Input
Amino acid sequence: MDRKANSIVLALYLSFILISGIVVSNYYSGAYLVIGSILVLVLSVVLSPLILKLFSKLSLDEIDRFTKIPDKILPVFFYGIPFIVLLIYYISYFPGGFGNDAFAQLEQYAGNSYTDWHPVLHTFLVFWIPLRLTRGWCGSIILFQIIVFAAALGYSFNTVYKFAGRKYVIGTMIYILCNPLLMFSLNAWKDVSFAIGAMILISFSLKIYVSKGEWLRKPVNTVFFVTAFVLTTIFRHNAVLFTVPLLLALFFFTSKRKFIIILVASAALFGAIKGPLYWAVGVQKADKRQIEMLGLPLTVIGDAVTYRPEALDEDILEFAYQVAPREVWDEYYVSGNFNSVKWEDETDHQVIEEYGTAAVIKMAAR
Output
């Protein structure tokens, strides 16, 4: 692409990450969000050509040096540089971010009593293992997490390098490692573990696509794919919105026999984790399951209730105002994020449990 096209792409990317930062901060909404987004877009359009011009002058020598690095040593940079960047964040924000979910999971670890309100497998891998290995040092939780996150990034960069070459992988690394939202990997959230699994699955998928399914011919690669698929699906209750379409797409890029093997193996591993493994450690079913599973439809309803309540039927409004008073929706709801209302003191989770999954989905569809 020429510089003009690159400027457009860069401007869109900068706008996306900066506006995302505004949205997830929960500090801005309504008119402020619109004005802020416009200012960010204008700033990105102005800065992008200048950044590219500066980069074109400074990067030629750097790229030339990079292309002379031996192939055997190059992967060290793919894994090492992300870890250094994340380590700087970790030192700056030691020991990392711990919200309500993390404290609940720490309580489960301390009390050796687990519920699947938060994915238990995530509690084991992110909390139990590092805390056991370090005799309870809380700083190990995020440290172990960024090590795995850096490894997933490194694997992704290595995949881009193999299929697109050195110059493209430099651009990919700069785009990702300069993204300020990368610091969210310092939170002990299941979202981060899901992101790690998603990165690995996308890298696997790229190899399957480019090789036209040949990559899966090796049994070990099939094992890796199934393991990553199941773990990513378990890390978030709504991860199926990503993993199931990915699995369906796989049908068109591999043999029917291999697809059935992957399907059966995934179901078996999923069942083994959710069944015998969870039974062995005494995992208990959480009382409030609906609200955890219905984040997407509740967000659809939340957007409508907050911004266009006059367009809704009375029964939907009645449901919404039973969940939380109107003033809570008006004051705290952030577009696209039901969690902004979910944890307010006035919110009644039991209402969602009583209505049930089918009723909430039907209201969201309407």
Notes: Residues 77 and 162 are 14 Å apart (CA to CA). Residues 58-63 have pLDDT under 50 and may be disordered.
